[in-house]
Design a protein that fits this description.
The complex is a heterodimer of chains A (369) and B (252). Chain A has 369 residues and is mostly helical. Chain A contains 14 helices and no strands. Chain A is 70% helix and 0% strand. Chain A starts with 29 loop residues before the first helix and ends in a 6-residue tail after the last helix. Classes of the chains: A mainly alpha (369), B alpha/beta (252). Chains A and B meet through helix 1, helix 9 and helix 10 of A and strand 6, helix 3, helix 4, helix 5 and helix 6 of B.
């Protein structure tokens, strides 16, 4: 066995019980460099895949525009026909950007939830945030209230506020018990059932045409994307990402369990509170504008973990990228499945993500949680 | 440098598990905590590391530490070796220097972590996931992490519990080496009295949260003390290096 530089002086004698499968060159630190290079390569691959899907998403749609028309509408809008310009600039581009941003937000929120709760089944939906947003939207649609000057913001704002209220409820209960993960999950599941019941009650009380509008919102659809709401989701995602950058190694340490993380200097409680707030913000902003979109927040982190491991410097961007890949992929398929129409994306996300996840599960030999 | 522990009391609810503990641990020495199950060894170590509720004071080099300072200056390795994590062995060791890690690793830190792993012959496992190695290997990895931190005070809760005989000796020799060369103050909770006698400079006996004996192994490991602490009859002999050797006879 070859000792790395500087190790010889302190190396203990003999190796009779050392690792039985020690290859002669396995001790080289270049192995770590190679692993990081491989992970960076996978991140680059994910970026390339996302770029391809973004192009495909902008090229597809019920209007059946040709590639040249779409490119002209994108890069030379003044020379494009007004109809094409409107379709490309005001409908397709915001929808594609919204798909990407919502996917990134939900992927990020999912990986945060799984990390702070130490639970592979956790997602932004585990704690009832999405059910609360659904209730908020349903309530606004049922009552028909409208914000003065900003009527387009009424339903999203109601969804957002209800989501934040749900987060405040789960937080208050959990904080009384030291932000312990099992209490957070329990309080979250109770909140989930409470808002689901309230949502059902609103649907039960609604007239048929109102019910249709509520159900359409709950499906989750990118058709609600516009230049009004895309920047809001982008700003929330950017803020949440910047806020967590100083804590990446602490989040990595959380995977050793609370006791060991505290022992090496992580303020677990403070970190959990901070991440909980960011998850609430990310989820609220994402679902408020496009409606309920399941699966992405649960599965994107698992796919990311299989590809780049637990180091949050790699895991976090990969989870965001995988969320965006699933969402943009689902957006493309939602437009291809029924030519001339668009199926709500919330219906398609699982259909896109599950085969990819199964492929990775069956291909890999290692445990990822 | 030394650690002064003054009237340290640990209570969970109304139950006191450590009662008015006083002690003084010297630089470069290993202090072994012994006592039966539930005597308070783990609670004492956790409190010293700033990880549990406590009253009293812990001072390092004459300066009383806040709980935050305790956690910063004192490294602690819990007893539990279970870990459901797919972090790699090298990543776990790197986490020992959490405060110095950023988006880019400091130059040479990966080499240092590899060297630290190699001291226990673990360098070949560097890319293996924590849940892919044995419990004993995990214990060695966590020990490497604690040592990699290069703390002034190192507390270990039964660090040899999951190890084979050879690695028990290697670990204790390594702790002795670290204490002597770096001046690290080492506190170890142990059940193996003969290993404690062989490697510890001092032994502190605990019973029901009270300190019942403390001093060099030959003074603490007496038949009377063992009967009081463990409720056993034992014979004590001295080995060639004058370390006491305990041979339990029966429970009383």
């Amino acid at each position: 066995m070859r000792a790395p530089n500087g190790a010889a002086a302190e190396t203990m004698k003999g190796a009779a019980c050392a690792a039985p499968d020690t290859p002669a060159d396995a001790t080289s630190t270049s192995q770590y460099g190679a692993m990081m290079f491989q992970r960076l390569g996978r991140l680059a691959g994910a970026v390339a895949l996302l770029c391809a899907l973004i192009v495909a998403d902008i090229l597809t749609g019920p209007a059946m525009l040709g590639v040249t028309d779409v490119l002209r509408g994108l890069f030379s809008p003044s020379s494009a026909e007004p109809m094409i310009r409107v379709i490309v600039q005001d409908i397709r581009l915001p929808m594609t950007l919204m798909a990407m941003l919502v996917g990134m937000s939900l992927g990020t929120a999912g990986v945060h939830m799984q990390t702070i709760l130490g639970n592979p089944l956790a997602s932004p939906y585990t704690l009832g945030f999405s059910a609360a947003a659904g209730f908020g939207a349903a309530l606004a649609i049922l009552t028909g209230v409208s914000l003065p000057f900003l009527p387009w913001l009424t339903v999203p704002l109601s969804a957002f506020v209800m989501c934040i209220l749900a987060a405040a409820l789960v937080f208050s209960v959990s904080k009384m018990r030291g932000m312990r993960p099992e209490i957070m999950v329990l309080a979250g599941i109770a909140t989930l059932f409470m808002f689901q019941s309230a949502q059902s009650l609103v649907q039960y009380l609604a007239a048929p045409e109102v019910l249709q509008a509520i159900v359409f919102w709950l499906f989750g659809s990118l058709l609600k994307a516009s230049w009004n709401n895309v920047p809001i989701v982008a700003v929330v995602f950017a803020f949440s990402t910047l806020a967590v950058l100083p804590n990446l190694w602490q989040l990595t340490a959380l995977r050793l369990g609370d006791a060991r993380a505290v022992a090496i200097g992580v303020d677990v409680k403070a970190l959990r509170i901070k991440l909980f707030g960011l998850v609430a913000l990310l989820t609220a902003a994402a679902v408020a504008f496009v409606g309920t979109i399941g699966f992405v927040g649960l599965v994107a982190p698992h796919i990311a973990r299989m590809l780049v491991g637990e180091d949050q410097r790699m895991l976090l961007p990969m989870a965001a990228l995988m969320g965006a890949v699933i969402m943009t992929g689902a957006s493309v398929i939602s437009k291809l499945v029924s030519p001339g129409g668009v199926i709500p994306i919330g219906i398609v996300t699982a259909l896109v993500g599950v085969p990819f996840l199964f492929f990775l599960i069956l291909r890999g030999q290692r445990r990822h949680w | 440098m030394s650690v002064h522990i003054k009237t340290l009391t640990v209570a969970y609810g109304k139950t006191q598990v450590i009662r008015g503990f006083d002690d003084h641990w010297q630089e470069g020495q290993i202090t072994a905590l012994i006592g039966c199950n539930g005597a308070g060894k783990s609670s004492l170590l956790r409190a010293l590391a700033g990880l549990g509720p406590m009253q009293g004071a812990v001072a390092v080099a004459g300066v009383a530490l806040s709980p935050e300072e305790q956690r910063r200056q004192i490294a602690y390795m819990p007893q539990d070796t279970s870990a459901q994590s797919s972090l790699t062995v090298l990543e776990v060791v790197l986490l020992g220097r959490l405060g110095s890690l950023g988006m880019r690793l400091p130059a040479g830190i990966a080499d240092e972590a590899m060297a630290a792993l190699e001291t226990f012959g673990l360098a070949a496992l560097q890319a293996r996931q924590l849940d892919e190695i044995s419990g004993g290997q995990r214990q060695l990895v966590f020990l490497t992490q604690a040592l990699f931190r290069q703390p002034r005070v190192l507390l270990l809760d039964e660090p040899t519990a999951a190890l084979d005989l050879r690695h028990q000796l290697l670990v204790l020799e390594r702790l002795q080496q670290v204490a002597r060369q770096r001046g690290t103050i080492v506190g170890v909770a142990m059940h193996d009295l003969n290993l404690a006698a062989q490697y510890a400079d001092r032994i502190v006996g605990l019973n029901g949260g009270h300190k019942t004996a403390s001093g060099p192994p030959v003074e603490v490991l007496t038949a009377e003390n063992l009967k009081a602490m463990y409720g056993i009859e034992a014979t004590i002999t001295l080995d060639a290096q004058n370390h006491p050797q305990v041979r339990p006879i029966r429970a009383v």
